[in-house]
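Co-fold these.
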Amino acid sequence: MADRAEFGQYVAARSERLLRTAYLLCRDWATAEDLVQTVLTKAWLAWDRVGDDPDPYVYRILTNTHVSWWRRRWRGEVPTERLPEPSVPPGPLTSQVEDRDLLWDALGRLGRRERAAVVLRYFADLEHTAIAEILGCSPGTVRGHISRALAKLRADLAVAPVRERT
Amino acid sequence: MTPIEERLREVLDEHSVDRPVPSGLAERAERRGRRIRRRRRAGGAALAAASVTAAVAVGTAWVAPQPAEHAGQVASAPSTAPPAPAVTVSRGGQAPPDGRLCAKAAIRTENGRVARLVLSNCSQQEAARLKAKIIQQCPQAKDGLHTSEAGDVQVTGADLVNCALKALGVAKPPAPPR
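Predicted complex below.
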């Protein structure tokens, strides 16, 4: 897919998925939008070198750019959509929402590489080999990242209610 | 698939749905891409011009018959050094006449700053003259100035390069636009 006219088609078809993936990596919508815009600009500059399937190339730019931003940006204050304390007393009706949020918070406590591997595996539905290509490591390392991430989630005390209900 | 993996899949899916995609992503990417490309080209041209100026200023009066055109061709060629583009004005490997001149002047940039100036195959007298001039005017020269028996003079470090260019009577080359 070397034709630049196809760049627009690719963006139209894939931008929603890219934005959602970016959000899952950085957990902030404004940053995710900036990240996707930067990734697409880099992809546009390299479009002549992109092969028939741009996804691995674009996802690789996405994860690498995310990591480089993470290194550069100040993280003393993390924006959050929710207060730490639950505003509604827990009850049976709120359990689904609680599960979602508990697991989401636990995901945020994973390392960057582990979270990227989990997002690419369970959200982008990519195989281990494709994830390995994107993260620049071996498929075995990807399996290790995912396995460790799942172990951490299982061991996370905050996720215990989710485990009991499932 | 284990229960926690299934739940994880649902959580990732549910947590990322409530945001529409901004419009004009492709157009903005293309606009920014073109701007970046223009800046890169402008930076290369500025460095090529600066290199020609440097080459002439250090006494290579016989540099190429059409230095600007020649430098432009060299600047647009792909660089073999990965970290930064380098521009070179060369006399095709021809040794300089004894007693004057250098065969080649090259500057290298890193992060938009001139980080290295190399004057190659200078005659012994010319190398000594350039070295003395730089040492005389640049107090930081002891760390970043190197000369070789082959007549190369190498100046490393953005501050020292700027000082050396001034010492040799060459204006500081314009920084590439950011």
